[in-house]
């Protein structure tokens, strides 16, 4: 039996690979993909997501464009990090200017659905109670906003699997942005707190 999944992405190289793996898994049924700013702004992320789906001949999977700004007011769209003593844009440094390693794919022919990703998430979860596995590989802005608008959906999600957290080299973990922060949590800590404080089974 396949597992219904919704994937929430900020499509850079890692998310693109995750999407392709999910599409090719016989165990997963990708219901839809929602996009959010993170590695890039939401317009670029949405473009990349549509390009990856078209590359995989999976353009029928609906894509909903979501939040372009974090819930956390002190966070900016661009992630500035220090590499070898220099300030660089982290998204560009790791994923290239276009988010896909500067590999040029054709401009997408498909378009995102008209619904905002937050509304789309709420609708899909409510339409498939206790059946959806929510996979987040991006900042939790869309999901945080969704549980703020409709807190009851948290109990209707079967499980939430996220790319986030810091673990490893010290007793306090080891993050990829700070010693204790992973990017997706660091990029929108208020949204992360909303999700962790909800009834989502993360």
Quick take:
By secondary structure, the chain is α/β, with parallel strands linked by helices. The protein has 7 helices and 7 strands, in the order E-H-E-H-E-E-E-H-H-E-H-E-H-H. It has a single domain, classed as Inosine-uridine Nucleoside N-ribohydrolase, Chain A.
Strand content: 15-25%
CATH-derived architecture: Alpha-Beta Complex
**CATH topology assignment:** Inosine-uridine Nucleoside N-ribohydrolase, Chain A
End-to-end span in angstroms? 22 Å
Helix content: 25-40%
The overall pLDDT average reads 89
Describe the sheet with the most strands: 5 strands, parallel
Number of helices: 7
Structural class: alpha/beta
Order of helices and strands: EHEHEEEHHEHEHH
What is the CATH level 1 assignment?
Alpha Beta
Shape: globular
Strand line-up of the largest beta sheet: 3-2-1-6-7
Instruction: Count all strands and give the number.
Output: 7
Radius of gyration using CA atoms only: 16 Å
Give an account of the 3D structure.
The structure is a single chain. With 202 residues, the protein is α/β, with parallel strands linked by helices. It has one domain: Ribonucleoside hydrolase-like (Inosine-uridine Nucleoside N-ribohydrolase, Chain A, Alpha-Beta Complex), CATH 3.90.245. Helices cover 32% and strands 17% of the residues. The protein is built from 7 helices and 7 strands, in the order βαβαβββααβαβαα. The strands form 2 sheets. Strands 3-2-1-6-7 form a 5-stranded parallel beta sheet, sandwiched between helices. It has a two-stranded antiparallel ribbon with strand order 4-5. Helix 4 (117-127) packs across helix 5 and helix 5 packs across helix 7 (189-197). The chain is globular and about 50 Å long. It starts with a strand and ends in a 5-residue tail after the last helix. The model has no long low-confidence stretch (mean pLDDT 89). Pfam families: IU_nuc_hydro (PF01156). GO terms for molecular function: purine nucleosidase activity. InterPro entries: Inosine/uridine_hydrolase_dom, IUNH, Ribo_hydro-like.
